[in-house]
Amino acid sequence: MDAYDSGSDVSREAEAEEAAREPQAPPAPEAVPDASPVPSGAPAPEPRTGVAALSPRYQIGAALALAVVAVAVCVHLGMVFLHVAPSNTVTKTHGEAIDDWIYPEFEQNWKLFAPNPLQQNIAVQVRAQIRTADGGSRTTGWYDLSAQDGRAIDGNLVPSHTQQNELRRAWDFFTASHDSDNRAVGERGSLSETYLRRIVVLRLERGGANGADGVVERVQIRSRTLNVRPPEWTTEKVSSQPVFRVLPWWSVLPGEAEGDTK
Question: Which pick of 64, 104, 118, 218 has the fewest CB atoms within 10 Å?
Fold first, then answer.
């Protein structure tokens, strides 16, 4: 080996040592590709809401619950319709099942396609025998209690239940528990008489029928029934004369004028 070759080897070794002493730059990190690239210009998907946001198991449960509610509503509407509908084959065959569903919570007191709607005006009237302070007695004229209720309701946006129904329901209670001769039928006859008598006595007292020092001793009640006039375009003819149903005189028991319920 000559001197030229030796010098070359020495220079190469020096360059290698100098390169080893220089710091090495860290390798550049590899780029990770996006797992779900979004195309440029496409809108982001909206989040799911309502039943769609539930898991499949809860979606099935919600669908079953809605189906049960829908079936129950359809069955209820069908039962109410059959209850108020005129008598037919279905109601005759399944009448007991329909009644078990309707009563008592869903009772309806009206009928669909009623064959005989109410076509009469019924007024309840009363008069009284008054014992005066000097020991005498006098009989009042007839007080139209139904007309008084009508005047109280007319123009009243919120009429009371008493003004609308108390007297009417009491008279219906009496007629349903008595025959045409005013004889009690069944065990509720006496109760209906007491209820109706107390109502009219209280109204006479509040209306001042007994005067300053008088006392109501007896009352007599009657109904005045008048047919509703048919429309002018019909050929139907009805009587325009009122029909009266007069009850016997009832003695007023002690305490009834003050509303005593004993």
Answer: 104
